[in-house]
Design brief:
This protein is an all-alpha fold. The chain contains 22 helices and no strands.
Length: 529
């Protein structure tokens, strides 16, 4: 043990004691994804004909390819599990590693805990070592538990554990990325934004390159592509994981070098000094100021997202007319190719809306963050009332996702208007507007939780999770209508249809109002923080 790592062992034990229970949701999610796939597949597709039709549908769907990646073999349980779980499970493991590393490496500096720890017998590299070991252990737990549970549920042992260790290596890689971003960012929030943004870009790039049939070599320029090339159940290649391990060693070593080059409590990219005199004069201005950086980042991301989905939309007519099974997924009983194209656009904008709701939930979450950091109390000690304080951030959380959906819809509409599709810019734009109430319903759940029951803070993401599962996976898994209806996006009508059904969307609007009112009522009555 070197002098710089002295104290790592006791710090690791204490950190695991206090933070170990927070690993559980990150372990459960990928495991549940894989196990449910093993159990559901033979029940939903019991014969070869149904499996063949399902494989044809999924294999030619660019939107699902963007999310899940290539479907190498959907005729077997293990091939289906690999397609449905490898990319998403790895994404969850990567998020877990990022949050663990940033919280332990930079979050403690921002809160002042690191300074107290440094006053004892603790080497300079001990906290970063602890952060990486914790993320590594969590990733190992994800892989082992997912692999074992999938195997015991009926999956092949080798492909199940290869899938699980794919989760593990993905977590390790982005734990190392987070270790670097923790040295670069001006604070923990900036570090998290850098790491998560890189993860998002690489995730979309991986799916996009596959969906547009890019050359095979492009897979190897993306670390997520290395894990994809393990191909559980359709090759069982273990060696690409070694590339991930090398990546972890190189990037992790770079993190330690960068840590030695920065000042304690500061990032290599320092925060800009504020003005000599404050310029924020209202709760609304404060809400925008606190969320300015993520709003700009999200706006740029949605322009790119609009370009990606717009590209898919240009070729959708031929794709749908050539694949009746896929057409049935998007628009059962559609009378014409134009109806199919319109239904496809509705589904694509639903996915855009789900992603936009993440931005809204993130903004609502800032209310609780400000409370726990003892900043909200100082603001409320002035003439700012609780309703105006809570309402300002809630308003921003509702407006920003609406603008993001509109931006992406406009870009998609521009692509659609330059082709021979039977829908134009106006149709896509109006469809994006119709998607906004569903986005607000997801954000409304976060408003209600933070306002009335802040101790249940993780539940703010429930709407995002449920909407994604039911909207993207529900139709393919033949879920009943009442189950699909739990997602607010299921009630978004196809505005280009002859007689669009607006009643479901009206019901969603009522739910939004009730959730926001509940949040306001709870915030007025509860203690802060």
């Amino acid at each position: 043990m070197t002098a710089s790592t002295i104290g790592t062992a006791p710090l690791l034990r204490a950190s695991l004691h206090h933070e170990g229970r927070s690993f559980l949701p990150w372990i459960v999610l990928p495991t549940a994804l894989a196990v449910s796939s093993v159990i559901a597949y033979p029940l939903l597709f019991p014969d070869a004909a149904e499996r063949s039709a399902f494989a044809a549908t999924i294999g030619s769907n660019p939107a699902l390819g963007l999310i899940f990646g290539p479907a190498y073999d959907l005729s077997t349980v293990d091939g289906f599990v690999a397609w449905r779980s490898l990319a998403l499970g790895g994404f969850v493991a990567a998020l877990a590693a990022i949050f663990i590393v940033v919280k332990a490496a930079r979050g403690q500096e921002d809160s002042g805990q690191a300074e107290l720890l440094a006053a004892g017998v603790l080497g300079r590299a001990a906290r970063l070592s602890t952060a990486l070991i914790m993320a590594g252990l969590c990733s190992i737990a994800v892989g082992v538990v997912a692999g074992l549970a999938t195997s015991l549920s009926g999956g092949d042992w080798e492909s199940s554990f290869l899938l699980g260790f794919g989760f593990t290596v993905t977590g390790w890689m982005f734990g190392a990325v987070a270790a670097v971003s923790a040295q670069v960012g001006s604070d923990a929030r900036a570090a998290t934004t850098i790491a998560v943004s890189l993860l998002g870009v690489l995730f979309v790039l991986r799916g996009f390159l596959f969906s547009v049939n890019a050359p095979a070599w492009t897979t190897w320029i993306n670390p997520l592509g290395w894990v994809q090339e393990t191909r559980p159940a359709t090759g069982d290649h273990w060696w690409p994981l070694l590339l991930g391990v090398v990546f972890v060693v190189v990037v992790g070593a770079a993190a330690f070098v960068l840590q030695s080059a920065r000042d304690f409590g500061q990032g290599l990219v320092p925060a800009r000094p504020g003005p000599s005199r404050g310029r924020v004069g209202s709760p609304l201005s404060l809400a925008f100021r606190l969320n300015r950086a993520p709003i700009v980042s999200w706006a740029l991301a949605f322009v790119g997202l609009g370009v990606v989905f717009g590209y898919f939309t240009r070729s959708v007519r031929g794709l749908l007319t050539a694949n009746p099974a896929m057409a049935q997924i998007f628009a059962s009983g559609a009378a014409s190719p134009a109806d199919l194209v319109s239904a496809f656009v509705t589904t694509i904008l639903g996915l855009v809306g789900i992603i936009a709701s993440v931005a809204g939930v993130q903004i609502v979450n800032r209310i609780r963050t400000e409370e726990l950091d003892d900043r909200a109390e100082a603001v409320l000690a002035t003439s700012v009332s609780r309703p105006s304080y809570f309402g300002a951030t809630t308003g921003v959380a509702l407006v920003v996702p609406a603008v993001l959906v509109t931006v992406a819809g406009s870009v998609i509409g521009i692509f659609a208007s330059t082709t021979d599709l039977d829908i134009g810019f106006g149709d896509v734009f109006v469809q994006s507007i119709a998607t906004i109430p569903a986005v607000w319903a997801v954000v409304g759940i976060a408003v209600a939780v933070i306002g009335a029951r802040p101790h249940m803070r993780p539940a703010i993401w429930l709407g995002v999770l449920v909407s994604f599962v039911l909207t993207i996976l529900g139709p393919s898994f033949k879920l009943p209508e009442w189950a699909l209806g739990v997602s607010p996006f299921h009630h978004v009508p196809d505005v280009s249809a002859a007689q669009p059904d607006w009643w479901g969307l009206c019901g969603v609007g009522v739910v939004v109002v009730l959730l926001v009112v509940l949040g306001f009522a709870g915030f007025r009555r509860r203690d802060v923080p």
